[in-house]
Specification:
Elements lengths: L13 E9 L12 H9 L8 H10 L3 E6 L3 E9 H7 L1 H8 L5 H18 L3 H13 L13 H6 L2 H12 L3 E5 L34 E5 L4 E9 L8 H12 L5 H9 L3 E7 L8 E9 L3 H15 L6 H17 L4 H13 L6 H8 L5 H12 L3 E6 L1 H14 L1
Parallel strand pairs: 5-9
Antiparallel strand pairs: 1-3, 1-4, 2-3, 6-8, 6-9, 7-8
Length: about 400
């Protein structure tokens, strides 16, 4: 039931409805990576009563917005319009899910667009480095693969494959949330569905240094470094201490990474922590983009920082500052109605209380430096490293990696 968190505080002169469908790229079959991203793209390309252009023109004619995103753990459809038009547009969500056209013509267009997107992603050194890092960390795990898939897989996906995948899509759990109180919310689930297959993989600590290292050589004036590991799921009690570590390391100009790499040494073009929300084991990594001449110095600083993270308690003053910044980030990310509904529908899809964030805010104060250190020792003692750039510098960094990890 979702009435309890759809209240008058969210009433506006516009309405938003979001549908979360369990199962994203993490359930793509071997050799068909990217099929769920393609399927989701087809859902917005026409449904019963509306061909592709008619569908988009109908939405545009009412000044509405329709978006669809595919994640590792699910798909999110979002519809936004003025209240006066919402009752006309809302049924489209049902039609998209239950009666999409999935035409072969549109499939061919989506296939071509997907291949072009993948080729474009390959031109980005950051994507290349992260792709290598992800494959190292998530061995034989659904999170090891690009949400968009791979060109060789996309070329092998047929229209019949899409139709077959849609049969699976129809029985996955689907959830609805909206600020429009006139919608009938008999149940959070739109339809009677069965659970999809959930491929869970246990935490991988990694073995020797070689299996935890990857490099990509390219003629570039900058080096990209990514170091980290998979950690815990969003629902774990270890999630908040890791978020507090992320706040300490990367939130704002008072953060450790900013002070070490930008303010004190002026070393990096870009530096930060990547720790997105995942239903299973979330990644946690520090990334750097640095000039060739500063790469070795930057990596040595990263080594020292990493060793300190897994061996020493964070100063109490720094912890308190990190708590303030983390609380602010929770509040800041829930300012707009879209953000609020997005978070709640995702939490529902993860089988968590929609007020999970409010609960987190209350628990932040209780986190100690000792708790953070215990968790960092568990997950970050043996990190995985992926780098991109000049071959000679990559080799130097690898030698340092071998000596220290």
């Amino acid at each position: 039931m979702i009435q309890k968190y759809l209240n008058k505080k969210t009433i506006r002169n516009f309405s938003i409805a979001m549908v979360w469908i369990n199962g994203g790229s993490s359930i793509d079959k071997e050799g068909k990576k990217g099929i769920n991203k393609m399927l989701s793209s087809l859902l917005v390309r026409g449904c019963k009563g509306f061909k592709n252009l008619e569908f988009s023109e109908y939405i545009d004619s009412h000044g509405a917005e329709l978006n669809l995103e595919t994640f590792e753990d699910g798909m999110l459809i979002s519809l936004k319009s003025l209240n006066e038009h919402f009752y006309k547009l809302f049924p489209l969500l049902d039609l998209m899910v239950i009666n999409p056209l999935l035409s072969n013509t549109q499939f061919q267009t989506v296939k071509e667009n997907t291949i072009n997107l993948i080729k474009k992603e390959k031109e980005n050194p950051f994507n290349i480095t992260f792709e290598k890092w992800r494959k190292l960390v998530y061995v034989k795990h659904p999170y090891a693969y690009n949400t968009s898939g791979y060109e060789e897989d996309i070329l092998n996906i047929s229209h019949d494959d899409i139709l077959s995948e849609y049969k699976n899509f129809k029985i996955r759990k689907k959830y609805l949330i909206s600020n429009n109180l006139k919608i009938n919310y008999e149940n959070a689930s739109l339809f009677n569905n069965q659970n999809f297959e959930n491929k869970v993989n246990s935490f991988q600590k990694g073995s020797d240094n070689f299996n935890r290292y990857a490099s990509t050589h390219g003629e570039s004036h900058q080096m990209i470094l990514m170091m980290g590991n998979q950690t815990c799921s969003y629902s774990s009690h270890e999630y908040l201490p890791l978020k507090l570590l992320e706040s300490y390391l990367s939130y704002g100009m008072s953060s450790v990474l900013f002070k070490l790499f930008r303010e004190k040494n002026g070393l990096t073009y870009d530096v930060g922590v990547l720790s997105p929300i995942r239903q299973q084991n979330s990644p946690f990594l520090i990334y750097l983009s640095v000039s060739n001449k500063n790469a070795i110095l930057a990596f040595n600083i990263l080594i020292d920082l990493w060793k300190n993270i897994v061996s020493s308690l964070i100063d109490e003053k720094e912890i308190n500052l990190a708590k303030v910044k983390l609380k602010s980030s929770f509040l800041f990310s829930n300012q707009t109605l879209e953000e609020i509904l997005h978070r709640k529908i995702q939490l529902i899809g993860y089988d968590l209380d929609p007020d999970f964030d409010e609960d987190c805010l209350e628990k932040i104060e209780d986190i100690t430096s000792e708790e953070i250190l215990k968790i960092t020792k568990k997950y970050l003692t043996k990190p995985f490293l992926s780098i991109y750039g000049n071959k000679k510098i990559c080799n130097e960094i690898y030698n340092l990696w071998i000596k220290n990890f």
